[in-house]
Amino acid sequence: MTDRSDPNEERQPPTPDQARQLLADAERVGRRTVDAVPAPLITYAILCVLGTMSTLGIHLAARVITDTSFNAPLVVVIASMAWVFVAILVPFLFRRPFRRGLAVRWYVYMGVWAALWAAGMFLGVEVAGLFIAPAFLVIFMIAVTTEARHAKADRTAEVGQAPTAAGGTR
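Above: the chain sequence. Below: its structure as C-alpha cells.
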C-alpha cells in the first residue's frame, strides 16, 4: 500500500496508543505470515517425497541391476539416509518455536513416517514396496489437512482475541 500524502509534508509521530496498536498489528501479521505453512510441514513433505522415491528406488534397483557383486538397493538406502539427515538437520538450524500443539503432532507425524520408512527400506525390494511408496502421500495429506484445521482454529481464536486501540481485547 502506498502513502498518497504530499512527500514534502512533515509527518507527525504516532501517539503511544497508535504505536502500540501498530506494533500489535505487525506482530500478528508477522506470526500469521511465517506460520502460514509451518517449516516442519515443509520438511515433512520433503521426507515423504524422499520416502516414496527411496522405496521405489530400492524396488527398481533390485530388479534393474542384477549384478550380485554390487548391492544397488544398499546404495539407494545410504543415499536416502544422507538426504533424510539433511532434511531433518536444516530446519533445526533455523528453527523457530513450534505453533501451539504442533510439537506433539510433529512427533506423531515423524513416528508414522519412521515406521513407513523402515517398512519401505526392508520391504521395498518386494512387491510390497509398490504399495508402501504411495502410502507416504496418504500420510502427508493427513498431516496437511490436520495442520490446516489447526491453523484455521488458531486464526479464528486470534480474531476473537484481537487487540483494540485501547490495548484490551474485544
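Helices lie at 16-35, 39-64, 72-93, 102-123, 129-160.
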